[in-house]
Design goal:
The complex is a heterodimer of chains A (188) and B (221). With 188 residues, chain A is an all-alpha fold. In chain A, 68% of the residues lie in helices and 0% in strands. Chain B has helices at residues 7-14, 20-32, 34-51, 63-78, 94-116, 118-126, 134-157, 163-189, 195-217. Classes of the chains: A mainly alpha (188), B mainly alpha (221). Chains A and B meet through helix 2, helix 3, helix 5, helix 6 and helix 8 of A and helix 1, helix 3, helix 4 and helix 9 of B.
Chain lengths: 188, 221
C-alpha cells in the first residue's frame, strides 16, 4: 500500500508516542490532533456513514491507546495508526457480517458490459469529487470496502484478501464489480 | 468493431496487471476502438480521482472528549493485573495470597530501602495501601499476588539457573521496584494526575512480565 504522508515531522510524532506510552494523555491528544482527520476519513469512506465513522474513529483511538506499547517506532506513528484503523474497521465489518449474515457482493450484479462514458471525473473537479464521494458511499458495503482499500488507500489485492480472509481472485472480481457500480453512478 | 474488451481486461489494463502479450493486444484494440478507448479513459480518470480522495476529513469537534473519557474510564480497569500471566496453582487461595502479599510488601520495601536509602524508602514504606484510592488497593493487591506467585515459582527452580542469571534477574527486578516505588509515591502525592495510575500499572506489569519470562528460563520439569 502507499503509506500516508505524516502530518508532522516523524521525530515529533515518535517523541509524542514515547510520552503517550508512559501514560501521558496530553501527548496522546497531540497525536490525535495530528491523525484524527486522516483516521476519520478512512473510517468515513470505509463505512459510508458519518455516525458509524465517528464510532470507528473513537474505537481506533481507544485501541491505539491500549496498544501503544506495541508501537516501536519502526514505521511512523501515522502509518501505524492507519493500519490499526483499517484493522478496527475490518474487524467491525466481520462482526457486522456475522451478526447480520449478510450476503457478499459476488453475484449481485449483472454481467459487465461496456457503456459509453459520461461526464469525466477529474481529480481537481470539486463537483465531480463530491459526486465520487457520494458514489463511493452508495456502494454496497463489501464493494465499498474493497474499492476504498485498493483504489483510495492503495492496498494490493493480496493484502486485502489476507485481511478479509478471501482469495485474491475474489477481491479482484469484487473490485471490478465495485468499479462498475461506481462508473454507472458517475455516468448516470 | 463489434467485440469490445471485457470489463475485467479494461480494469487489468488500467491497473497494469496484464501479461505483456495481453497488454499489447489490449492496447492495439483500444487504439482502434473509440468505445473502449473512452471507457478506459473514464476508468483511469475515476481511479485517479479516487486516489486523490486520500486526504483528511475533519472529525466531529467533540470526538476527542469522548475518546479521552473512554480512556480514563478504562484506566481503572487496566489496573487489574493481566490474569493470563498466572499459572493456575492449587496453592493460590485467598488466605495464602493475603499472607504472602504481606510478606512481599515487606520484601519489596526492604529492597527499596536498600536501593533508595532510608529517606525515600521510608516515605514509600509509610505510604501503605490504605492511603491509596480504594480501586488502587484492590488492583495493587492483585499485582502483588501475581508477583508472589511467580516469585515462588521462580524460587523453586532458581537452582537450575546460573548464579549470574539469578543476579541479573534480581538486579532488573530491583530496578523495576524503584520505578514502582517512585510511581506509587508520585501517585500518593498527586492522586488526580491521570497519567500516574497507568505508569504505576505499567511498572507492575513490567515486573510480572519479567518474572514470567524468568520462570520460563527455569522450567519446573
Amino acid at each position: 500500500m502507499s503509506e500516508p504522508q505524516p502530518a508532522t515531522a516523524p521525530d515529533d510524532a515518535t517523541a509524542l508516542a514515547a510520552r503517550a506510552q508512559r501514560g501521558d494523555v496530553a501527548a496522546f491528544e497531540q497525536l490525535y490532533a495530528q491523525c484524527a482527520g486522516r483516521v476519520f476519513a478512512v473510517c468515513l469512506r470505509m463505512s459510508g456513514d458519518r455516525q458509524r465513522a465517528r464510532e470507528l474513529t473513537h474505537d481506533a483511538f481507544v485501541r491505539a491507546w491500549e496498544r501503544l506499547a506495541s508501537f516501536r517506532g519502526e514505521s511512523g506513528f501515522e502509518t501505524w495508526m492507519h493500519r490499526l484503523t483499517v484493522n478496527v474497521v475490518l474487524a467491525s465489518v466481520r462482526s457486522d457480517r456475522r451478526r447480520e449474515s449478510r450476503v457478499a457482493l459476488t453475484g449481485d450484479l449483472p454481467s459487465p458490459t461496456i457503456s459509453a462514458p459520461g461526464r469525466a471525473v477529474g481529480p481537481g473537479d470539486v463537483a465531480a469529487r463530491i459526486d465520487l464521494e457520494s458514489a463511493v458511499a452508495a456502494l454496497t458495503p463489501q464493494a465499498r470496502m474493497v474499492f476504498v482499500l485498493h483504489d483510495v488507500e492503495g492496498y494490493r489485492h493480496e493484502e486485502i484478501a489476507q485481511r478479509l480472509a478471501l482469495a485474491p481472485g475474489t477481491i479482484r472480481a469484487q473490485l471490478h464489480r465495485a468499479r462498475q457500480q461506481l462508473m454507472r453512478m458517475l455516468t448516470r | 468493431m463489434t467485440d469490445h474488451l471485457a470489463w475485467e481486461t479494461l480494469n487489468d489494463l488500467a491497473d497494469d496487471q496484464l501479461q505483456e502479450d495481453e497488454r499489447q493486444a489490449a492496447e492495439v484494440h483500444v487504439q482502434s476502438c473509440p468505445t473502449c478507448a473512452a471507457s478506459l479513459a473514464a476508468l483511469r480518470e475515476a481511479l485517479q480521482a479516487a486516489h486523490a480522495l486520500r486526504d483528511s476529513v475533519s472529525p466531529p469537534d467533540d470526538l476527542w472528549a469522548e475518546v479521552r473519557g473512554t480512556i480514563e474510564r478504562r484506566k481503572v480497569a487496566r489496573l487489574a493485573p493481566d490474569m493470563t500471566y498466572l499459572p493456575r496453582g492449587w496453592w493460590v487461595t485467598p488466605g495464602r495470597v493475603a499472607a504472602a502479599s504481606l510478606i512481599l510488601v515487606t520484601l519489596s520495601s526492604a529492597v527499596t530501602i536498600a536501593i533508595l536509602g532510608p529517606t525515600t524508602a521510608g516515605t514509600f514504606a509509610s505510604a501503605d495501601i490504605p492511603s491509596l484510592a480504594v480501586s488502587w488497593q484492590a488492583a495493587e493487591r492483585g499485582y502483588q499476588s501475581s508477583v508472589l506467585e511467580l516469585r515462588t515459582q521462580l524460587a523453586t527452580n532458581a537452582d537450575r539457573l546460573a548464579p549470574s542469571t539469578v543476579a541479573a534477574i534480581e538486579q532488573s527486578l530491583a530496578t523495576i521496584d524503584v520505578a514502582i516505588a517512585e510511581a506509587r509515591e508520585a501517585l500518593l502525592r498527586d492522586p488526580l494526575n491521570a497519567a500516574l495510575p497507568e505508569l504505576l500499572a505499567s511498572n507492575y506489569r513490567q515486573k510480572i512480565e519479567l518474572l514470567r519470562r524468568a520462570t520460563q528460563l527455569a522450567p519446573s520439569t
